[in-house]
Write a structure and sequence with these properties.
Homotetramer. This protein is an alpha/beta fold. About 45% of the residues lie in helices and about 20% in strands. It has a seven-stranded mixed sheet, sandwiched between helices. The longest helix has 22 residues. The chain binds adenosine-5'-triphosphate (ATP).
Length: about 325
C-alpha cells in the first residue's frame, strides 16, 4: 500500500440519508488506523468553497454510528457548478493540506467530484448515499435499507387502521425515477398493488385488481405508489378516480414524505457504511481515483465514477411477479 497521501477530506453532499454518519465515522477511523489525517468538510461542496473544515480524529466520531442525517451537514452548492467556485474550493484544500477527497452523496455529487478531478487532478472516491437505491454499481446505496424498514413499519400501522375500518389506503412513497422503495417495501408490507415509475401497469389493472379483491372477500387494501408512477395522476387524483369507480370503497391517502429519509440507520446500513468507508480510504492509499465503492454480490467493489453516474439501475422484475402472486 503506497502511503504518499497524508491528509484526506470527507464531505456529505446532496440529499442526506441514514448511514452517512456511520460512513464518515468509518472514513475517519480508517484514516487514523493508517496514520493519516482526516478533515471533515462541512456543508458539502459549499463548505469546501468557504473553507469550513475541521480536523477529525477517531474520538470526534464517537456516538454517531446510530444517528440519522449527517453531522457534517449536507448542502446543494450552485457555486461549485462554476469554474470559479471549484477553483476557490481547490485553493482551500491546498491551503489545508488535503490531498484527496471522499465524497458521500448521489450522482450529482459524483459529477461534481469527477469535474473537480478533471480540472485539478485531485483524487476523488465516492460513497453512494441516497435512499432511492438508484445508483449503478451497487446493489444497495446507504440509507436504502433503513428507508425500506421505515416504510414497512409505517404501512404496518396504516394496515391496522385500514382493516379496522374496511378502508383502501393509497400510500405514496419516495421514488421519482426509481421504484425500488415502492416495490420492495410494498412486498414487505403486503401491498395489494404497487405502482412504480419503471412499469406502466395502467389504471385498468389497478381497477381489476381492486375488483378481484372485493370479490374474493378482502375488506381492506393497501396500494403502494412511488412518486414517479406512470398513471399520469397524482395520488389525490388517483383517490378520486378509484372512488368514482368504486363508490363502496372508503379511500384514504397517506403521503409518507421526508420521514423516509430520517431515523436511526438499520444494522445493514451501519455495516455497509463501515465497509464502504474502509474501502474508500484504502483505495485512495492505493493510488486510486474516480471510483465509487459499492456492494456487488455482497462484496465491496469499485465502479468507475463515470459509469456509476451514467449507468441505469434496473428493478428486479421477478419481484413484480412475486407481488402479483401475493395479491391473489
Ligand atoms: P441526491 O441523490 O440526494 O439528489 P445528489 O448528489 O445527486 O444527491 P445534487 O443536488 O444533484 O445531489 O448534487 C449535489 C451537489 O453536487 C450540487 O449541489 C453541486 O454542488 C454538485 N454538482 C452536481 N452536479 C454538478 C455538476 N454538473 N457540476 C458541478 N457540480 C455539480
Amino acid at each position: 500500500m503506497s502511503k504518499t497521501i497524508k491528509k484526506i477530506g470527507v464531505l456529505t453532499s446532496g440529499g442526506d440519508s441514514p448511514g452517512m454518519n456511520a460512513a464518515i465515522r468509518s472514513v475517519v477511523r480508517t484514516c487514523a488506523f493508517h496514520n493519516i489525517e482526516c478533515v471533515g468538510i462541512y456543508r458539502g461542496y459549499q463548505g469546501m468553497i468557504e473553507g469550513d473544515f475541521k480536523e477529525l480524529g477517531p474520538r470526534s466520531v464517537n456516538n454517531i454510528i446510530n444517528k440519522g442525517g449527517t453531522f457534517l451537514k449536507s448542502a446543494r452548492s450552485q457555486e461549485f457548478r462554476t469554474p470559479e467556485g471549484r477553483k476557490k474550493a481547490h485553493d482551500n484544500l491546498v491551503k489545508e493540506g488535503v490531498e484527496a477527497l471522499v465524497v458521500i452523496g448521489g450522482d450529482g455529487s459524483f459529477t461534481g467530484g469527477l469535474l473537480f478531478n478533471a480540472e485539478f487532478g485531485f483524487p476523488v472516491i465516492g460513497i453512494p448515499g441516497t435512499i432511492d437505491n438508484d445508483i449503478y454499481g451497487t446493489s444497495h446505496t446507504l440509507g436504502y435499507d433503513t428507508a425500506l424498514n421505515t416504510v414497512v413499519e409505517v404501512i404496518d400501522k396504516i394496515r391496522d387502521t385500514a382493516s379496522s375500518h374496511n378502508r383502501l389506503f393509497l400510500v405514496e412513497v419516495m421514488g421519482r425515477d426509481a421504484g425500488h422503495i415502492a416495490l420492495n417495501a410494498g412486498i414487505g408490507a403486503g401491498a395489494e398493488e404497487i405502482l412504480i415509475p419503471e412499469e406502466d401497469l395502467g389504471l385498468e389493472r389497478l381497477m381489476d385488481s381492486l375488483k378481484r379483491s372485493k370479490s374474493t372477500g378482502k375488506t381492506s387494501s393497501i396500494v403502494v405508489i412511488a412518486e414517479g408512477d406512470k398513471t399520469g395522476k397524482n395520488v389525490f387524483e388517483l383517490k378520486d378516480y378509484v372512488e368514482s369507480n368504486f363508490p363502496e370503497y372508503d379511500v384514504r391517502v397517506s403521503v409518507l414524505g421526508h420521514m423516509q429519509r430520517g431515523g436511526s440507520p438499520s444494522c445493514f446500513d451501519r455495516v455497509l457504511a463501515s465497509r464502504l468507508g474502509v474501502k474508500a480510504v484504502e483505495s485512495i492509499l492505493e493510488g486510486k481515483s474516480n471510483y465509487m465503492v459499492g456492494l456487488l454480490n455482497d462484496k465491496i467493489a469499485l465502479t468507475p465514477l463515470e459509469q456509476a453516474i451514467k449507468g441505469h439501475t434496473e428493478i428486479d422484475r421477478e419481484l413484480l411477479r412475486v407481488s402479483d402472486i401475493m395479491s391473489i
